[in-house]
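User: I need a structural model of 2-hydroxyacid dehydrogenase from Jiella sonneratiae for a docking pre-check later this week. Nothing fancy, just the predicted structure tokens so I can convert them on my end. Input:
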Amino acid sequence: MAKPDLLQVCPYAEPVTAALEKEFTLHRYFEAKDKPALLESLAPTTRFVATGGHHGASREMIAALPKLELIASFGVGYDAVDVEAAKEHGVAVTNTPDVLNDCVAEVTLGLMLALAHRLPQADRYVRQGRWEAEGPFALTDELTGSRVGILGLGRIGKAIARLAQAFHMEVVYHGRTRQEHVPFPHYPDLAEMAAAVDWLVVIAPGSAETKGLVDRAVLTALGPKGKLVNVARGSLVDEPAMIELLETGGLGGAALDVFAEEPKVPERLRALENVVLLPHQGSATHKTRAAMGRLVVRNLVAHLRGEPLISRVV
Ligand code: A2R
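Assistant: Understood. Predicted structure tokens for 2-hydroxyacid dehydrogenase:
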């Protein structure tokens, strides 16, 4: 029997593609020169789309595939998938939660350590021969004993909280709802939390509701000694306000894995000394990316076999 058609929106690592090819006939959207023609040719048969956090699936794509049943997205954030359009067309959406919690939490603490101890600068100091020429590197800050406020104490936020506790940090959090059975104080007001902490870690989903949540008022409340960490989505932070406050000393520092217009990072941000910048590395390890890929495949195959989806969001 012919394998069912699957529209592959973005490239995957070889093991993921190989696993998909066992079950599906892959049609590579990202390689197609005439994308509308590819969609038109797939419209009569295609029940499956496999995509990624950045590429998502647009309303136009969903509408162009009337037989579509499932969009399987690689990554926990699925803000690039038009979920309203998916709901309207009765299309299910899956993501890849949980398997990346520890990895993203590790990268978060790595960013915080790098910013507090100025690890990138200290490394450069040694490489440039300045230790020998100029003597010891200037003293730095540390995490121990400081207070961290987590915006979004979900699956990843809780993993970050556990690591922060291992560094003897005090943990508080902000979310729309106070969580029972969570041992950390809840702040219903984000700006109030920002004023009360040394670190603000952003790890809530990107959505219309969270866009610009970390605005000028929140950043100002975090203040000249405060440090912002964003490992969620660039859209949650008012990036121009953040840059201006970092430049003028209104905000102490920032450790960022995500940006408003990736992979573009503003030149003014790149010029600052009080920031650590990563190219969206939160889940980018061999082990975690492989686990995320397996979950994409498991969702698609489950649906193909008429079994329940493993990680359905819509
Ligand atoms: O608001 P709550 O109590 O439902 O808490 C959720 C919080 N959250 C928000 N907090 C404040 N204002 C909002 N408008 C808002 N919307 C959601 O974010 C919850 O504690 C947390 C999300 O947790 P999970 O759904 O378990 O997500 P997970 O797996 O931790 O990933 C978070 C995000 C992804 O969506 C990617 O964009 C990023 O991490 O890599």
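Before docking, keep this in mind: The longest strand covers residues 48-52.
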